[in-house]
Amino acid sequence: MMVKGEPFLDTHYFLYHSDATRTRRHKRAIKERLDTHPAIEWAEEQRPKRRVKRDYLFLDDDAHHNAPQRRSVLSHQNNRRAQKRQQPTSPREIPSLPFPDPLYKDQWYLHNGAVGGFDMNVRQAWLAGYAGRNVSVSILDDGIQRNHPDLAENYDPLASTDINDHDDDPTPQDNGDNKHGTRCAGEVAALAGNNQCGVGVAYKAKIGGVRMLDGAVSDSVEAASLSLNQNHIDIYSASWGPEDDGRTFDGPGPLAREAFYRGIKNGRGGKGNIFVWASGNGGSKQDSCSADGYTTSVYTLSISSATYDNHR
């Protein structure tokens, strides 16, 4: 067998058969030899799990999203009111709102654009000088386009790796199916004020990505992703999980659970890592977020959201 990539959880390794054409019986014999080897404490054949990206859903009959009648919240009057709420003595850089990025005006969840004026309340944080400085976020997904003009300046190589191909480059395959991780990275840390695309919630944060969904996903793949550089990464963000079909119940395996525990116990020099999980899109199928061992784990923060017109 061949060892690929770096060890994870200190002492665990990815082992691959050097000859993929070996029979099942031959592979089973190799596994038995590993189990009885005096230098090996534990070995397990990894089985692929079905993991689904939890993405934005475009609803064909959603007239609000096709032609939303959104009230304008980008006027100078509103901007002045927001500026008054800032702390004038803050040593941090205070942005001048609204941002000039072309898609910022469409990011209704950032500037009171939803029905009833609801949003994520981040402008008050921005005007107090908070924008994610000195925070490292890693997106566990299908990779991120690290040279994207809205991400390159904030890219963090220490929060990035490729578990699928066992190298350091998280760039996704350019096959049309692997843009979810880049989109998630942009929602978090897209640059502000550079006239590109939109604005990230924490536009000064350092952003990295782990390419781990672009291949077979197993317990070891999840554990290696969740345990990456735990003394450097502050926040791990995962927008995927078991099928949200109202019938499937699944959760992290023993290696992933160990990665969670080590992260909250020892990560960031004892302060603990923060694991953020998307709770899923199964509401229309009567799927419960509780039927998911990732979102119900005591070690994760499970996040749900609402639509522009305040529907779940």
TrEMBL record:
GO terms for molecular function: serine-type endopeptidase activity. SUPFAM superfamilies: Subtilisin-like. Residues 67-98, 148-182 are annotated as: Disordered. Residues 6-54 form the Peptidase S8 pro-domain domain. GO terms for cellular component: Golgi membrane; trans-Golgi network. Belongs to the peptidase S8 family. Furin subfamily. This is Peptidase S8/S53 domain-containing protein. It comes from Caenorhabditis japonica.
